[in-house]
Amino acid sequence: MAQHDYVINNDTAPNVRSDINLALAAIASNNSGATEPATTYANMFWYDTDTDVMKQRNENNSAWVTLELTPTTLVSLTQAQAEDDASTVFGTVSGQRLGQAIAKTLPIVYTDEYTATTAHTAVIPYDNTVPLIGEGTEILSVTSVVVATGRQVVVNVCGLASNTNNAGRVTLALFRGSTCIGVGHVQVQSSSVPGTITILTNDAPSAGTYTYSVRVGPAANTAYMNADASGVRVFGGASRTSLTVTVI
Length: 248
What we know:
This protein has four helices and twelve strands.
């Protein structure tokens, strides 16, 4: 703790040096003390050790202005204050809370890729029924966090599919949890030529954590992703089935 009038009087060299050191000590401690400095200047700082509050002199050098960010407010910030998005109380917040605050303004992208050329025989019927979570085979999945109700979720699925039967059908079904929210379908023209399946949908769930998954299934016969109907990979591995979930 140190305070100074910031006037260096003419004196012997040792005394001047000592006076300068005292002035520097006052600057380093923000003029800390249990009482205000005897000599004040516009915009100067004073750390009041009696109340543990940082203060600053106003422009007219007529009064002290209490600053909100002080060691006391940092320590005494309550859990409720830290979790109150509308609070004007300044203080420390948890890394999770800070992450949530950032997430409320920045898009967050979750991705998954399926690169295998496995044969799939579990059927997704080609009829007038909504695909069920137990139909077909799951090949993609991501868990996303929607931090606030009203955020839009854009989901994109894309991949190459084939069927061992000429004019065979392959379906990709997109689920949020156990609810189907999108379907992509292709009827291949030849078992040796894969077809492209794309799903693009917007979702708007309430705040929470959600799993988005993609299931593949032929209407009949056997389906392959990223390969022709013989299970031979196409495009040297550059072809892959992808799921992208963007929370905006």
